[in-house]
Amino acid sequence: MLISAGIYVYAMIKQEQIENPFIPTPLPPTPTRSAFSYADEATELYLQGNLARAIAAYEQAITLEPDDVLLYIPQARLLALEGRPVEAVRRANRAVEIAPENARAWAVLGMAYDWNGDVPEAIDACKRAIELDPTYAEAYAYLAEAYADAVRWAEATDAGQTALQLDDRSVDAHRNYGYVLEKQGNYWGAAEEYEQALNIHPNLAYIHIAAGRNYQVLGDLGAAESSYQRAIEIDPDNVEAYYRLGRAYYEAGEYERAETYLKQATEADTEFAPAFGYLAFTYWSRRNYEAAIESLEHAIKVACLEARRQAETFYITVENLNDAATSPSPGVLMRGDFAPTSENNRDELQATLAPTDDTEAWSSTHGAVTLNAQTGKYTVALAGLPILEPGLAYVGWFKGINTLSGDPLSTGPLDLPADGSLEAEFETAWVEGPRIEYFYTLGLAYFYMAECEKSYPLFDAALQIDSEDVNALEGIRLCQEAEETE
Fold this sequence. Notes:
Number of domains: 3
Order of helices and strands: HHHHHHHHHHHHHHHHHEEEEEEEEEHHH
Distance between the termini: 112 Å
CATH topology of the largest domain: Serine Threonine Protein Phosphatase 5, Tetratricopeptide repeat
Number of helices: 20
Structural class: alpha+beta
CATH superfamily of the largest domain: Tetratricopeptide repeat domain
Shape: globular
CATH class of the largest domain: Mainly Alpha
Radius of gyration: 29 Å
Low-confidence stretches: none
Largest sheet: 9 strands, antiparallel
Number of strands: 9
Strand content: 5-15%
């Protein structure tokens, strides 16, 4: 009977008279999250003080709605606040491309430019935002910050006060006016503005750090410590909070406590040069020269790395061999802008060079430059350059990278063969970026380790930054005396 029943059921399934009971029932489809859902999550994460996750949530939203300007604007702002200004500029520019008449897009572009060090461009973008919407408070707030960075105090104060008049509940209006006051040395006023911003949104680590910075200058170590600790509670991976707290203890002479927090800063970000520098100073203060040497060498290395990542443009000029040119002549013959070879990674940059002269002599000329920011080595490849008269030479120059003395970094005269082509490798060595203290302190540490042969290049580097630096000059004198007594 069971066999007969089974044969009957099988026959009915084959004839599709009944459903197959052995096929699992499909689950209902999982709903797909909307861009609005991710944007709402990003807002909540921002208010909790988690900027990194908020940025990531906006990225998810942009993936779903790549033409929604209202997603790019807040993400660009957070990228700047998170210390990623290059990405902030890129996102803000995209916002302006999508909505060229949007005041908020232009305002956040102004903020991104300012945080990227492009102050004139920042001022222009903020002014454009104000033209489009004279009532938008944040446009005035970002303009105030840019004016402060341009040392235009009256205009900075006026813009900051206008922002507050338009919206007294704007975090950026209070923070940026606080920044204007801080830059002018009004630390009490700045701290009050930062506290006003925190009364609006209390979970913003970057504002707690700003408040602590001013309390520290005012000598209120307790208030500064409290501010930095609160920033760490909100964002346990915040390298600047650990750095600022460690630096505060260092300046108070509490070197062991300083070391604890500075080590945490170096663990949070292995490329944050100031933390390694001050960690070295704590070792130096306790005469632990070996540890100081290790930290200072790393501080110089990563400071140079960050400086090389800022390369903007490479260009070719013609210079007179009789002149020791430290800056380029006005006529640029070839140029190209640097771009990362992979997105969001500026460790390898490349520029494609094109002639600025459109005459027949330059029609077949082309070139490229590849820079490895980690090693400092770069390759220049040129083809088809016209042969120059005796006494003249082509020279390659960087915009965005300077020598220790502050002059633009150059290749020096390029020795081109008769066909006007070249492929050669160069090295940037030390570039402008590390603090002068790193060089002379490292030189003195080597002196105390009886290794003056390593000290001299470091003292020389310090003197390239400041030819009258007393610490470097004293270090040279000490090494010379030591050698004379041997």
